[in-house]
Amino acid sequence: MTEREHMPDEAAADLMPDMSYGDYLRLDRVLDAQKLHSTAHDELLFIIQHQVSELWMKLAIHEIRSAKQAIAEDRLRPAFKMLTRVARIFEQLNNAWDVLRTMTPSEYTSFRGALGQSSGFQSWQYRAVEFLAGNRNLTMLKQHRGNPQAISTLEAILSEPSLYDEALLLLARRGFDIGEDAKRSDWRDTRKPSEKVQEAWKQVYLAPDDHWALYELAEKLVDFEDYFRRWRFNHVTTVERIIGLKRGTGGTLGVSYLRRMLEVELFPELWYLRTEL
Asked: What's the CA dihedral at 33, 37, 40, 43 to 10 degrees?
């Protein structure tokens, strides 16, 4: 424990007399950020659920970036902790759908018109999570063309190896043959699954005691994607429950698009090899 934690409450308060709980958390700004655009009772639920989700994604981005850097520097233990946290963040994001699903179609319809052209597809932070993990679908950049700062952030992410790219480069540094993935220099496009990469991961799984750090890294990545897939599934289920098969706000395809996203794999070889083990 720190010296401050041993102090009586009064003594600790004297160290920062002008700092209150609300000041530290800037609660005045946080709690004033829910601006309703209708008189519908359930609009507050809708706004808070999405705002909280964006806050969790902000933390996920912070942790994924840090884990990626740690792997690049061969600091795997901190990376494991960060990836565990990312999985738990997506567990929280999954729980948020449970609250939103208490809203019925008629309740959503009572304020849907107030949303205008706004849509969850415009969440640049969600796109950042996908890009950081390795799903680099460049066509999705057009969703953010009206936000130059978001485009700049996403382009910066695309200029560097993804989380999975760094895991593969680590495999190469540990002596595994990963084929063309060891020579990549253009990180913008989503890479294609590789038999050599799958074989490398298979060797790790067949001899975990010999490659424990890589084995644990692989399972941390799978754990992350497991929770991420559940989030996508809960997303599509919630949307279908509330709006059915109608088009989404902003002219998006809604459920049909979200269903296609269920087939996207972030770390494909880690899933494919399970059939061979």
From this structure: -40
- Which residue type is seen at 105? P
In the chain, the amino acid numbered 9 is D
CA 21 to chain centre: 28
Interacting residues of 189 by C-beta distance below 8 A, sequence separation 6+: 136, 138
Which pairs count as long-range contacts for 152-156, CB under 8 Å and 24+ apart, including other chains?
153/124, 153/128, 154/124, 154/127, 154/128
Of 184, 185, 221, 228, the C-alpha closest to 201 is 221
What is the pTM for the complete model shown? 0.89
Q: What domains appear along the chain, each with residue ranges and CATH number?
A: 43-275 (1.20.58.480)
- Please list the pLDDT of the chain residue by residue as tens digits (277 residues): 554 455 555 555 555 668 899 999 999 999 999 999 999 999 999 999 999 999 999 999 999 999 999 999 999 999 999 999 999 999 999 999 999 999 999 999 999 889 887 877 789 999 999 999 999 989 889 889 889 999 999 999 999 999 999 999 999 999 999 999 999 999 998 899 999 999 999 999 999 999 999 999 999 999 999 999 999 888 888 888 887 766 655 555 556 666 766 678 999 999 999 999 9
